């Protein structure tokens, strides 16, 4: 791939453009908002000038509702030799393209499983896709050259290709992305009019659960509008579980020991199901996550403190598998939770204590 046209210079389009430019590809940028394309160009994502002829690959990075129209316009003017989109829903746009009677041999629907709470070109990074799954949804009619171009794009962005049918993709993202986002929003919505005293007690748990609720509502309306059925099916199943949870909790209020026992069993069943489901979420190496030990360290909110603690862990020859920071409300301090292999936890704890760090159990 020597040339590419990125249509839509939001977070995903600009991030892909930055990655391609960094690998020596000439990238042309266009957007319905010319100012946004100019911003992406100023960030080094390519040029907002138009190519003189067809490019090797056109990457359509617009909301799902606009994918078919944007692709059709690009195909009609012969903008590229191959076309793909990066929308988060795949089945609907492809069916709309088929209804338009377009030749789809040069088109491939894709979806990089990466993103941030922020949107727009200023939030873009060249490493956004690194190590992340990038779904490709070819059909028997997809031209081999277009599939190869898509695989090259994924490689240049240092992502991991995953091939699956379009409708299977849509059901999968409803489960792992779209439904969880709505659940996060539902929890966060409970905080909207909550007492200030209660909100001040927010800890890392509620921060983790509500993190994605900070995303742009307009973007998510576009996504959910394109995949409502699978998401509604999942929420219906969640509603059944919620009814069971409410019933179990009401039983715990009973004065009857038998009913309280039934309620406790119901809550335990739900929590254990949650344990099993969480255990299936892939870890950093792709397989089921290992059981890491946590070393919690008190850290002050000062420049260089994180760098110092990581350097001290490196001197102890301990690999940090994961890290979380729990901020103390109203204080210039917090807890850094360092996840390491169980055998390394005592080594790390001793080494950090020796270097003056305060270890918390």
From TrEMBL:
Reactions performed catalytically: prephenate + NAD(+) = 3-(4-hydroxyphenyl)pyruvate + CO2 + NADH
Entry's family note: Belongs to the prephenate/arogenate dehydrogenase family.
Pathway assigned to this chain's UniProt record: Amino-acid biosynthesis; L-tyrosine biosynthesis; (4-hydroxyphenyl)pyruvate from prephenate (NAD(+) route): step 1/1
Stated name of the protein: Prephenate dehydrogenase
E.C. numbers: 1.3.1.12
NCBIfam families on file: PRK06545.2-1 (NF005109), PRK06545.2-3 (NF005111), PRK06545.2-4 (NF005112)
Lineage: Bacteria, Bacillati, Actinomycetota, Actinomycetes, Kitasatosporales
An example Gene Ontology molecular-function term: prephenate dehydrogenase (NADP+) activity
Domain ACT: 294-361
Gene Ontology biological process terms, A to Z: tyrosine biosynthetic process
EC supergroup of this enzyme: oxidoreductase
Residue ranges constituting the Prephenate/arogenate dehydrogenase domain according to the UniProt record: 2-289
Transmembrane segments: none
Keywords assigned: Amino-acid biosynthesis, Aromatic amino acid biosynthesis, NAD, Oxidoreductase, Tyrosine biosynthesis
InterPro entries, per database record: 6-PGluconate_DH-like_C_sf (IPR008927), ACT_dom (IPR002912), NAD(P)-bd_dom_sf (IPR036291), PDH_C (IPR046825), PDH_N (IPR046826), Preph/Arog_dehydrog (IPR050812), Prephen_DH (IPR003099)
